[in-house]
Design goal:
This protein has 71 residues and is an alpha+beta fold. The protein has a domain of 49 residues. It is built from one helix and two strands; from the N terminus they run ββα. The protein is extended and about 40 Å long. Keywords: Disulfide bond, Repeat, Signal.
Length: 71
């Protein structure tokens, strides 16, 4: 079930660099809540402690992304 929810506010990362694309991430405030279902689920982000303890030591990682690096 597709949900189209308007974005009311974009909060870019404070270190975002338009030229290099570094820190290309933002928080989006939606106009209404998302209906959670089997196609739309919340995600869990790791804590800083877990990231430093576990993720920095890992040899391989999986990264997901959307959008384009160029226009």
């Amino acid at each position: 079930m597709e949900q189209k929810i308007p974005v009311s506010m974009v909060i870019p990362h404070h270190s975002y660099n338009l030229k290099t694309g570094d820190s290309d991430i933002a928080l989006l405030r939606l106009n209404q809540p998302v209906s959670v279902n089997r196609f739309a689920l919340p995600i869990c982000l790791p804590t800083k402690d877990f990231s430093e303890r576990e993720l920095l030591l890992a040899r391989y990682h999986t990264v997901s992304g959307w959008g384009r690096r160029t226009s």
